[in-house]
Amino acid sequence: MLPPCENAGIELEDELLRIARLRAEHFGAHHVRFLRSPAPDAFPSNLGVFDFVLFSAVFEHLLPAERRALLPLIWRHLKPGGVLFLNQTPHRWAPVETHTTGLPLINYLPDRLALRMARRFSARVKPDDDWETLLREGIRGGTVREILGILAKDGSPVLLEPRKHVGDRIDLWYGKLSSRHAWLKWSVWASLKLLKATTGAVLTPELSLAIRKQA
């Protein structure tokens, strides 16, 4: 998709690095390099800086302390004027937590009670799963405020809005959906648009964000 660019991927596990390198070789992707991270909260010393960073389906799987450590680290490897894309992360306050448990309203419960409800009512959760396991699996998602708040401690992040022909972030989320259960998805879209019109709140089941690092 991006042949003129250099693409770098970072990974902790040697086996996943081996597979990624074999795939790159198979597809002739010579503009791609894969680096091993020395630790969960550190990057390779020879990583360099980039115009764009893609953080896809990752943020929700980080523990709270890891989020506060890794996001600023990523931000420092982004050039001034560069953009961090963060997507496929469930919204922390989505009425139905579809990512880990499939349960409604569990996002609004305190941690201890949410764990009890997940163990009792979710077929995806084992009776002996602990809270850290569920956090690692992505139960709490993220919010725009949380992400921008972390980045603001090490710079001046600017949240970019979708282009006018796309609409707002609710339209962006809706436009990515398949046609399966179209009436249900349209109903959710209409409810979210009504919520925005009445309260000003922009709530989407998952986040798709573009955040620019001010020069």
Fraction of residues in helices? 25-40%
Principal-axes geometry comes out as globular
State the strand order across the main sheet.
3-4-8-7
Tally of contiguous helical segments:
7
Which regions contain 5 or more consecutive residues with pLDDT less than 50? none
Give the C-alpha Rg: 19 Å
Query: Could you give a short account of the major beta sheet?
Result: 4 strands, mixed
> Beta-sheet strand percentage?
15-25%
The CA-CA distance between the termini, in Å, is 27 Å
On the 0-100 scale, what is the average pLDDT?
94
Derived from helix and strand composition plus strand pairing, the structural class reads alpha/beta
Total DSSP E strands: 8
The ordered string of helix (H) and strand (E) elements is EHEEHEEEHHHEHHE
Notes on the protein architecture:
- By secondary structure, this protein is of the alpha/beta class.
- It has a domain of 45 residues.
- It has seven helices and eight strands; from the N terminus they run βαββαβββαααβααβ.
- The chain has a four-stranded mixed β-sheet. A two-stranded parallel sheet has the order 1-2. Strands 5-6 form a two-stranded antiparallel sheet.
- Strand 1, helix 1 and strand 2 form a beta-alpha-beta unit.
- It is globular.
- The model has no long low-confidence stretch (mean pLDDT 94).
